Amino acid sequence: SNTTSYQNTGLLPSTTYAYTVAAYDAAGNVSLQSASASATTEASVLSTTVNAGEWFMVPNSQLSAVAPSPLPPGRLSSVIDAWSGGAYDTTRDRLIVWGGGHGDYGGNEIYTFDVNSLTWSRPWGPSPSIPDPLGAPCYITYADGNPVSRHTYSGLQYAPNIDKFWIQGGSLACGGGGAGNDTWTFDFNASKWTQKKNIPQTQLGVQTAYDPVTGHIFEQSMTKFFEYDPVGDTWTQRGDVGGDLGERNRTAVIDPVNRYFVSIGDGQFFVWDLKTFRYFTPITSGVSNLENAQAPGLDYDPVSKKIILWKGGVDVYSLDTTTWTWARIVAASTNTVVPTAPTTKGTFGRFRYVPSKNEFILVNSVYGNVYIYKLSAGTGL
């Protein structure tokens, strides 16, 4: 180049970069490299410009930008809008999205959004030679031995105690769309799926939640309530609701302080007491009818020690499990961003708390941007 300026893009926040310069003439002679000069980028926008009560839209943050080409059979949009959820990798600070399934999309690739670089990546997949799900028989794996795509509902978690992405069940990519009873983990370091023990009872629309106290994952199935130990790879039945809950669009979360597994959505709201394994429906006060939301965004806020629910718009709702009171939290008067509406099927696990930033992350579409919501002031825990 015959210019004396240079612009470096795509850099990570809070990172130091070193640069050297060399000159050359028309004859192609090149000088020695200059002494190194360094510069450090600013901190992530997530921790510097989002105030309490505000939403932020991450520009140019569409998942579709890193989709495979050519696409596997089906619609890419179904990675999110076909009853599919997500998990949050607290080790790498990334939202994980994995979905599709039934007759909607055959791709089983994994997508992650890094909250530090504010970029999507596709760290794995898809499997080769994926058949059209509309005409495919129902199997739990493709020909390469990796799990088929599926509607993932609330069946995705990240288990930090084993540093693995965890999935259970879902509506398999096939004409029948049957419910898988299979359990898998994905190791990001080894880039490898491993099948684990099947759950004894499954159904479409399961709800799961990771418990940071025990390091176990709890799951509500058709009627039975299970506890899964990811270290020992064991399922233990802890209860039974006594009747088929049906395929509903529900989301679950654990209050690790008061020890409750809370499930809500599609007209249902119920709780398991993790101290006694008692099943009950609390009588709540405050805001009503939140259980009618379709698989609302749901996660625990360790700052307020309350469960936070998002069902669309700029406001969120908190649940105090000590008093069973719902409260509406209105967006700040300074807020200027309105997140896109949730899909008609629900948000499931794509609304997650980010401990390192003390913020929540949300994604509603493969073709839409990622959103950040800050509930309270302060940086990460």
Polypeptide structure, described:
Helix content is 2%, strand content 35%. The chain has 2 helices and 29 strands. The chain has helices at residues 45-48, 78-81; strands at 16-19, 37-40, 54-57, 85-89, 94-98, 110-114, 119-124, 150-151, 156-159, 164-168, 171-172, 183-187, 192-196, 207-211, 216-220, 224-229, 234-240, 251-255, 260-265, 268-273, 278-280, 285-286, 297-301, 306-310, 316-320, 325-329, 351-354, 359-362, 371-374. The strands form 8 sheets. It has a 5-stranded mixed β-sheet with strand order 22-26-25-24-23, with no helix packed on it. β6 and β7 (119-124) form a beta hairpin. The longest helix has 4 residues, at 45-48.
Map the helices and strands.
Elements: E1 16-19, E2 37-40, H1 45-48, E3 54-57, H2 78-81, E4 85-89, E5 94-98, E6 110-114, E7 119-124, E8 150-151, E9 156-159, E10 164-168, E11 171-172, E12 183-187, E13 192-196, E14 207-211, E15 216-220, E16 224-229, E17 234-240, E18 251-255, E19 260-265, E20 268-273, E21 278-280, E22 285-286, E23 297-301, E24 306-310, E25 316-320, E26 325-329, E27 351-354, E28 359-362, E29 371-374
Parallel strand pairs: 22-26
Antiparallel strand pairs: 1-2, 3-29, 4-5, 5-6, 6-7, 8-11, 9-10, 10-12, 12-13, 14-15, 15-16, 16-17, 18-19, 19-20, 20-21, 23-24, 24-25, 25-26, 27-28, 28-29
